[in-house]
Amino acid sequence: MLLIKNGLVYLDGNLTKTDILIDNNKIKAIGTGFEAEQVIDAEGKLVTPGLVDVHVHYREPGQTYKEDIATGSRAGARGGFTTTLAMPNVIPTPDTPELMQQMVKANREKGIIHVLQYAPITAGETSDEILDYKGLKKAGAVALSNDGHGVQNARTMYLAMQKAADNDLIVASHCQDDSLFNHGVINEGPKATELDLPGISELAETTQIARDLLLAEKTGVHYHICHVSTRTSVDLVRMAKARGINVTCEAAPHHLLLSDSQIPGNDPYYKMNPPLRSRSDVDALVEGLLDGTIDMIATDHAPHAKKEKTGDMRDAAFGITGSETCFSMLYTKFVKPGIFALEDLLDWLTIMPAENFGLENCGQIKPGAEADLAIFDLDHPVTLKESDYLSKGVNTPFTGQEVYGSTWMTLVSGQKVYERGN
Ligand SMILES: [Zn+2]
User: Fold this and answer.
1) What is the pLDDT of residue 420?
2) Is position 227 annotated in a ligand binding site?
3) How far is Cα 53 from Cα 86, in angstroms, rounded to an integer?
4) Which of 3, 13, 78, 23 is nearest to 48 (CA)?
5) Which GO terms describe its biological process (predicted)?
6) Are strands 171-173 and 186-187 parallel, antiparallel or unpaired?
7) Which residues are known to be catalytic?
């Protein structure tokens, strides 16, 4: 048996100083007065349910020079994540039950945390061919997404949603109308003009969200919007929820932490899709989280090789890594100044993704649950260093920041999968 003693534990929505007794892979009891052969003294630390991230890219198979399941999951563990949901934009994309079976098996064998898997919405992720959702689900897919691509054809999305609803699968959408994307690099606006870069109109995102919300209303599917990034997107979701549409959405840390005005120059580490938006959009995301319009935070961890993220922004890949900076950056920039309550931030990273995605056995600390825990050090600042990242990708603009809330230890099924300094 293993005892985690003296930690400040996030339990049933409250922060409580207590101990957690772990027997094999499960939480056996919570309270004080226990004894065990193995003791971890978490005095002065925050003990939380292992974080849950419904949006990561692990690049395996096909682009393992960027990341693979082992390194991606190690990066997750270092960020306090114990369950992640991997996007299917790998090569080949798992769009048949056979490929899905192989993907799920690889995730289970190579991941040091629980790595769950999306299936694509359509064959090859860009076609209009609806897939065998029943077979994909049976093979282990937990939700559907063409992330990286919007579904361009409304009828395709409508049919996909109908079939997903019949199979009780979530459709998670990267909303992007290619006809409005303008080969853009950063947000359309003063910064794009200043840097003389092609701008991405917010309409590329918002018009597709508006379309999909109406399709979701008609089909009754659970429709989830990946990385909402604009004020109008948040307004649309707020309106849809008021209408009773079965919609959830996520915000990415970088869209909360940075606006396009903070892009220092033609620097690919600031190139993401959706792009960093205006200050007003950032404020709307914060408001959306606080009033419950935005349900969760997900990183969109998108590792790339250095050569793909250097040079001119026009030629660079979209995306930044997120697993290893998410909690500490958000804790430092939002909880410490009193914008978010720590409890809320934890909910957006644990119980909200777990419950909204129907993920069993994760997202909360309770007797009988899998012993998936993260332990954070809130008191001692650390500097985010490139040499410390466990991801193969070092493409994040947050390197060099001094942060509180670094991960001290992560346990999956009662086993240490990350320990600071080791
Ligand atoms: Zn995306």
Assistant:
1) 94
2) yes
3) 9
4) 13
5) 'de novo' UMP biosynthetic process; purine nucleobase catabolic process
6) unpaired
7) 300
CA 106 to chain CA centroid, Å, is 20
132 belongs to a structural domain: yes
Burial 97-118 (b: 16+ CB within 10 A, else e): bebbbebbebbeebbbbbbbbb
Is position 222 annotated in a ligand binding site? no
Closest CA to 334 of 253, 235, 231, 230: 253
Which two tokens mark 78? Answer: 């270092």
The number of folded domains in the chain is 1
**Neighbour tally for 406: CB within 10 Å:** 24
Residue 376, marked binder: no
Distance of CA 319 from the midpoint of ligand 1 (Å): 9
Chain-centre distance for alpha carbon 367 = 26
What's the pLDDT tens digit per position in 312-342?
Answer: 999 999 999 999 999 999 999 999 999 999 9
Q: Which residues contact 279 (CB under 8 A, 6 or more apart)?
A: 259, 261
- Ligand 1 centre distance from Cα of residue 2 (Å): 39
pLDDT digits (tens, 9 = 90+) for 109-121: 999 999 999 999 9
CB 133 within 8 A of CB 144: yes
Q: Say if 190 falls within a structural domain.
A: yes
Range of the domain at 138: 50-361
Which residue is it, tokens 């490139």? Answer: 386
CB-count burial class (<10 Å; 0-12, 13-18, 19+) for 96: middle
- HSE, side-chain direction, 13 A CA sphere, residue 59: 21
**Angle at which helices 279-290 and 342-349 pack, to 10 degrees?**
90
Cβ pair 212, 223 in contact under 8 A: yes
Percent of the chain exceeding pLDDT 90 equals 99
Burial 38-52 (b: 16+ CB within 10 A, else e): eebebeebbbbbbbb
Residue 70, domain CATH: 3.20.20.140
How far apart are the CA of 172 and the centre of ligand 1, in A? 10
Helix axes 97-110, 69-78, angle to 10 degrees: 50
**Before 253, cis peptide (omega within 30)?**
no
Q: Does residue 366 form part of some domain?
A: no
The rounded distance, in Å, linking the Cα atoms of 419 and 91 is: 32
DSSP assigned state of 337: T
Asked if the structure places residue 11 within a domain, the reply is: no
User: How far is ligand 1, taken at its centre, from the CA of residue 229, in Å?
Assistant: 11
